[in-house]
């Protein structure tokens, strides 16, 4: 398996691309914040993602970028930060959430950091921030205190728009993730047996992904093993000690994280004799996903894809079990903004990485999801996670 990495020049290109957008909007500095829910905002520009702490990055229109770490992860930041010409700072406001205090030499607080920024850039009038759902009030309050006359604007949409079209280096890393998660399913699923608990199977996935070279499971969630009529109904869940049985639906959802990027597969499974109702529903979902994904050609509005999916389910009588037809960007998070919807009619473009999933919910025997990752090429969508294409027809047809 190939294990590519992102080099410093790529991070510098990303910072410069953001600065181009800053100039268009007359923004003098951008402050980005990451925690464990959205660990990628800071990592996208420098390669650093902390352990057990949050992080931040300060990107002025000109001059050095400041990569901000808590106390416990600062040594790791020194190793992981790959942005040329940047400097690092230790800030207790993004340290361990318990408020544990370190007596670390050279640390600042954000008031002091912003005062330094103001002294080096006295003309700051407009400030962008990234992380609207997670940006801490303690940092925002200090930003407003140091820059009382500056306009502070939401820069999330600019940031996520930057991430939606993948660079050649990103595509190579995503290919590694997609190969890894496909191999993981191929290795783990045949070993699943009646009587195993959901948590046992979760452990099998985690052990396999580490042996294949992943740094962790997908950032959005740990492997989910939702079984039987009741547990499979839940879209997002924590696994239980429930033992799986023959002839019942098992909903497997697992992904890997490598170099900060994610690959995901969701796949149904039944052990033993498979009831015909389950076979029919799974194959309809699989065929609907293939029918819709075939329309993901560059230049196509996404509503064409989403409407094709719902029209297919309507034709075969399953539309009442479809809470939504999901089409979303993927990359440094399993599910990244901006969303593709019938209303916004975003256009499919080359070098996008997109997940599409068929989610059937609330049948009398349970629920399931089929989800795969696609790369948009100049000719159309290429399914990059290969397990479902091999396994679903073999098991359920």
- How would you name the oligomeric state of the polypeptide chains in this document? single chain
Share of residues in helices: 25-40%
Report the top-level CATH class of the largest domain: Alpha Beta
| Number of discrete helical segments | 12
What topology, given as strand order, has the largest sheet? 4-3-2-1-5-6
Q: Main β-sheet: number of strands, strand sense, barrel status?
A: 6 strands, mixed
Q: Assign the structural class, choosing from mainly alpha, mainly beta, alpha/beta, alpha+beta, or little secondary structure.
A: alpha+beta
Count of extended strands: 15
Beta-strand share of residues: 15-25%
> Secondary-structure element sequence?
HEHEEHEHEHEHHHEEHEEHHEEEEEH
Give me the CATH superfamily of the largest domain: Creatinase/methionine aminopeptidase superfamily
Task: Assign the CATH architecture of the largest domain.
Answer: Alpha-Beta Complex
Specify the overall morphology: globular
Describe the protein's architecture and organization.
- This protein has 397 residues and is α+β, with helices and mostly antiparallel strands.
- It has two domains: 8-163, Creatinase/prolidase N-terminal domain (Creatine Amidinohydrolase, Chain A, domain 1, 3-Layer(aba) Sandwich); 165-396, Alpha-Beta Complex (Creatine Amidinohydrolase).
- 36% of the residues lie in helices and 22% in strands.
- It has helices at 8-24, 40-46, 74-80, 110-120, 137-146, 156-164, 168-188, 198-212, 228-231, 276-293, 302-315, 387-396; strands at 29-34, 55-60, 66-69, 87-90, 126-130, 151-154, 216-217, 224-227, 250-258, 261-269, 325-329, 336-339, 353-363, 366-376, 381-383.
- The strands form three sheets. Strands 4-3-2-1-5-6 form a six-stranded mixed beta sheet, with helices on one face. The protein has a five-stranded antiparallel beta sheet with strand order 12-11-13-14-15.
- Helix 4 packs parallel to helix 5 and helix 10 runs antiparallel to helix 11.
- The longest helix has 21 residues, at 168-188.
- The relative contact order is 0.11.
């Amino acid at each position: 398996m190939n294990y590519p990495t992102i080099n410093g020049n790529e991070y510098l290109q990303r910072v410069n691309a953001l600065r181009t957008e800053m100039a268009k909007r007359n923004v003098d500095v951008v402050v980005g914040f990451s925690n464990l829910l959205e660990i990628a905002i800071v990592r996208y520009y420098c390669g650093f993602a902390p352990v057990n702490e949050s992080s931040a990055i300060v990107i002025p229109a000109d001059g050095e970028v400041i990569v901000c770490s808590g106390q416990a992860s600062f040594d790791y930041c020194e190793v992981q930060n790959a942005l040329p010409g940047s400097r690092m700072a230790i800030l207790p406001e993004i340290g361990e959430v318990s408020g544990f205090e370190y007596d670390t030499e050279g640390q600042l607080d954000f008031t002091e950091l912003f005062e330094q920024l103001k002294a080096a850039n006295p003309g700051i009038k407009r400030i962008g921030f990234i992380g609207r759902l997670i940006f801490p009030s303690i940092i925002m309050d200090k930003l407003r205190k140091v820059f009382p006359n500056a306009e502070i604007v939401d820069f999330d949409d600019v940031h996520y728009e930057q991430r939606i079209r993948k660079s050649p280096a990103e595509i190579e890393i995503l290919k590694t993730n997609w190969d890894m998660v496909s191999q993981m399913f191929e290795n783990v699923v045949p070993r699943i047996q009646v009587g195993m608990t959901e948590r046992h199977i979760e452990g099998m996935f985690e052990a396999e992904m580490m042996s294949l070279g992943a740094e962790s499971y997908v950032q959005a969630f740990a492997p989910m093993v939702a079984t039987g009529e009741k547990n499979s109904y839940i879209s997002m869940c924590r696994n239980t000690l429930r033992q799986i049985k023959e002839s019942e639906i098992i909903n497997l959802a697992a992904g890997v994280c490598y170099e900060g990027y994610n690959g995901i597969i969701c796949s149904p499974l039944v052990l033993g004799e498979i009831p015909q109702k389950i076979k029919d529903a799974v194959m309809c979902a699989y065929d609907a996903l293939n029918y819709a994904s075939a329309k993901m050609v560059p230049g196509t509005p996404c509503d064409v894809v989403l409407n094709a999916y719902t029209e297919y389910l309507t034709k075969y009588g399953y539309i009442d079990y479809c809470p939504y037809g999901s089409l979303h960007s993927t990359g440094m998070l399993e599910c990244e903004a901006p969303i593709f919807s019938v209303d916004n009619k975003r256009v499919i473009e080359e070098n996008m990485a997109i997940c599409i999933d068929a989610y059937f919910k609330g049948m009398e025997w349970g629920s399931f999801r089929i989800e795969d990752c696609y790369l948009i090429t100049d000719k159309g969508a290429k399914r990059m996670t290969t397990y479902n294409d091999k396994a679903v027809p073999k098991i359920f047809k």
